[in-house]
Write a structure and sequence with these properties.
The chain is of the alpha+beta class. The protein has 12 helices and 6 strands. Helices cover about 40% and strands about 15% of the residues. Strands 1, 2, 3, 4, 5 and 6 form a 6-stranded mixed β-sheet that branches. Bound molecules: zinc ion.
């Protein structure tokens, strides 16, 4: 049986609560955001955080709800009673939860809402948009049908998260949540300076360049955002440059925890493309970088084997 290099290189640290927190904790978000994320993490500390766990969606949803309820500064996220959260999250499963509108208003009130003039979405909107989108995964799938009818909206990720969270808070006593302690993750950018940064898929290697095709020499990671900077100072984003996979690339190169902040310099950094699992090591996943698992059988050997087989049959 061929050993799957993806399984072999599985790195459990790629899917922990601390990593999920680091993907939310933006240093440019309004101050109450950090407390909301930490309180959400504390309440969800006992969830499963392995690969494909919906807990990361629940963490984003609960962080946004706690932010919406506490951003005015009247109370801390830890002062919001479990009963209040349960009531806010409870909704019949056949419609979008009411917290979507409440979060939307809170982001607008704090300058994190949609702006037609901003070059990039605010960090909290970057977190909120994929959670509330009702077209996630549908636009691509419906391309063939687009000339017949427009795609229909489906349930958002936030709808399922609200239902899971409502169940969680209904099924466990409030004192369990009061006693829980969660990890502390420092917000702040992770800055990478590098001679060459390559996006690595199973079958390709692509050096990162800006839109003017200059080489990218620096990458700034901050919460949900990852911004590249070329040697002429142009800043941009790249759809294949994924924030979690950049964190994993730095963790592999330095041995640091993938949730860590700081500034690093490398000659070359290999970042897995979004079609590879978050934990995969580009050196093992890519056909050109990985060693062949078995010695290549030469053509002469194959002719020899065919002759032997055909000789046996006659
Ligand atoms: Zn440039």
């Amino acid at each position: 049986m061929v050993e799957d290099p993806m399984v072999k290189s599985a790195d459990t640290s790629a899917y922990g609560l601390e990593v999920e927190m680091s993907l939310l904790l933006s240093s440019s978000a309004p101050a109450p955001w950090g407390a909301a994320v930490h309180e959400a993490a504390r309440l969800l500390v006992d969830q499963e955080w392995e690969r494909n766990s919906p807990a990361s969606v629940d963490l984003g949803t609960l962080s946004l709800l706690l932010f919406a309820r506490t951003h005015s500064g009247d109370r801390a996220p830890g002062d919001v009673p479990i009963a209040e959260l349960r009531e806010a999250l409870y909704d019949p499963g056949d419609r979008e939860p009411q917290i979507v509108d409440e979060i939307d208003r809170a982001l607008t009130d704090t300058g994190q809402g949609y702006s037609s003039t901003a070059l990039r979405d605010a960090p909290l909107l970057t977190i909120f948009n994929p959670l509330r989108s009702r077209y996630g995964g549908r636009l691509g799938a419906s391309m063939l049908a687009d000339d017949i009818e427009p795609p229909l909206p489906g349930p958002s990720l936030m709808r399922a998260a609200a239902a899971r969270l409502a169940r969680l808070f209904a099924n466990s006593p409030a004192q369990d949540h009061e006693q829980a302690t969660g990890p502390v993750v420092a917000p702040g950018p992770l800055i990478i300076e590098c001679d060459r940064i390559q996006i690595v898929s199973r079958s390709s290697l692509r050096p990162l360049r800006c839109r003017q095709t200059d080489h990218v020499r620096a990458v700034h990671v901050d919460g949900p955002e990852v911004i590249q900077e070329c040697d002429k100072g142009h800043t941009s984003t790249d759809w294949q440059l994924d924030v979690a996979r950049v964190r994993m690339a730095v963790a592999r190169a330095t041995g640091a925890h993938p949730a860590a902040q700081g500034r690093h310099q490398f000659q070359e950094l290999l970042v897995a493309s979004p079609d590879l699992p978050r934990h995969s090591d580009p050196r093992q996943a890519n056909a050109f970088l990985s060693e062949p698992p078995y010695p290549i059988v030469g053509r002469d050997d194959i002719y020899e084997q065919i002759e032997r087989l055909s000789g046996n049959q006659s």
